[in-house]
């Protein structure tokens, strides 16, 4: 009997656990943000909600319709063959949307901080809605070629039985269009977004730092009383949220980007079905790290947005009260019966 590779065993356990925690975390995040009681502008709310929705769809597709289902159920027995292609099309749509929504959000913050003229017409709720819709539509179209890149592939289980998993087409290099697109992906969701994030965040942080020093100098505010200036405090909160989202994005996505570039320059090409090869192992770990971002984003919002944390605690307290409420307390009070004696 063949022994299952340890990385596959780890995936088999990891994805159900992340489904149990990551999906509720994304739904809670969407609900709190959409409620709108966070004292934040509409454009920021729209961007954060769109990011949370993309995270939810990503974990839904990856954990349930791709990995969990393919780990425990033979795809060819329950779903038609196109299900493999469709699930990866949706997966890459979510990937592109997440990446470019993060870029759009950082540019929105750059515009509102560094350019007064751009702020007046760009940093509005209407523009945010247009940008978000355009990114989702563009991501859907840009991910379309992946429909033909992934197919069910017959593999051998540890017990010797045959099984189908959804994987990259073995003869991808023999199809010029798909081979070219596979290389264009490196630019589409690695190089350009990474450069844009570093540039816009660097300029935003630099501008906030410089203007804060000038403001404090004009007001002659001692260094120990910086927090007394509400404008400085607001800018620092905005910078903290921006940096936390960017650091989270880089922490979860940069390893995947790096290993994808490594795969491009590895010769001979790595056999993706060799689950003991270091490149494949790192790639699978990076995929799990991306799924983990759906849960960590809620933690970031809880740490950086005070009102989000308050709403989260208020909701948790309400759920706890409902669960542990004594059954008799939910019953209406008994009617008073008057007893007359003769």
From TrEMBL:
The chain crosses the membrane at residues 13-34, 46-69, 89-107, 128-150, 188-210, 241-262, 282-304. One of its GO terms (cellular component) is plasma membrane. InterPro entries: GPCR_Rhodpsn, GPCR_Rhodpsn_7TM, Orphan_GPCR1. Residues 25-301 form the G-protein coupled receptors family 1 profile domain. GO terms for molecular function: G protein-coupled receptor activity. It is found in: Cell membrane. It is a multi-pass membrane protein. Keywords: Cell membrane, G-protein coupled receptor, Membrane, Receptor, Transducer, Transmembrane, Transmembrane helix. GO terms for biological process: G protein-coupled receptor signaling pathway. Pfam families: 7tm_1. This is Probable G-protein coupled receptor 139. It comes from Xenopus tropicalis (Western clawed frog). The lineage of its organism: Eukaryota, Metazoa, Chordata, Craniata, Vertebrata.
